[in-house]
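We modelled the chain as a single entity of 200 amino acids. Its sequence is:
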Amino acid sequence: MRKIIITLWAVMIMLPAFSQEKDLTKDVTMVSYEQRKGDGEGKLALRNNTEAVIMDVVFQLTYFDKSGTPLDSADFKEWVYADPGKTAVLDIPAYQIERDDYKSGNNSSDSLDFKVEFELKDYNTDSFAVKGSDKASLVSFLVTIFIIVSVLAIWIVLYYLVAVMAIKRNRSVIKWLLLSILITPLLAALILLVVGEKGV
């Protein structure tokens, strides 16, 4: 029993070693960026290409004019909840340069005349965030197993206690174990305490 518990604890401690390596070129990619003239916020759609839930992203946006000349860049760290293979939309501060200078010839158009390039720097940086393909489910599974093993160990100890108490009181071990299965070993132990030894 002790070996099983030690093994479970060792596996839980080593979980970070099993976490999936991050590929910052593919794990999170930009689907789209939307911002209209006068907007205070832009909408950035990001796709989670991993098998893990993503809770936060660290990235850089670089803004280019239509000819491809870099205009500006900005760094972001944003909270997000993106399930594996799903897309999440983030509201981020809008590009604040004089955007009218980068509009196409039609001033009535709401479409932006600059391009945005997304570069992922990191994700799931906080300790509570899910890291690795199946880490969250593996941790919960191991915790559940640990709880089940602990409860079973306690029950086995209680059944053993009932057997020892029955022997010391000259009573049938089998009958008291069967009774403890029906009424729980703790209650059977208490009854054995009350009834005392069988008449000699």
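As a brief sanity check on the tokenised model: Strands lie at 28-34, 41-48, 54-65, 70-82, 87-93, 114-123. The mean pLDDT is 79.
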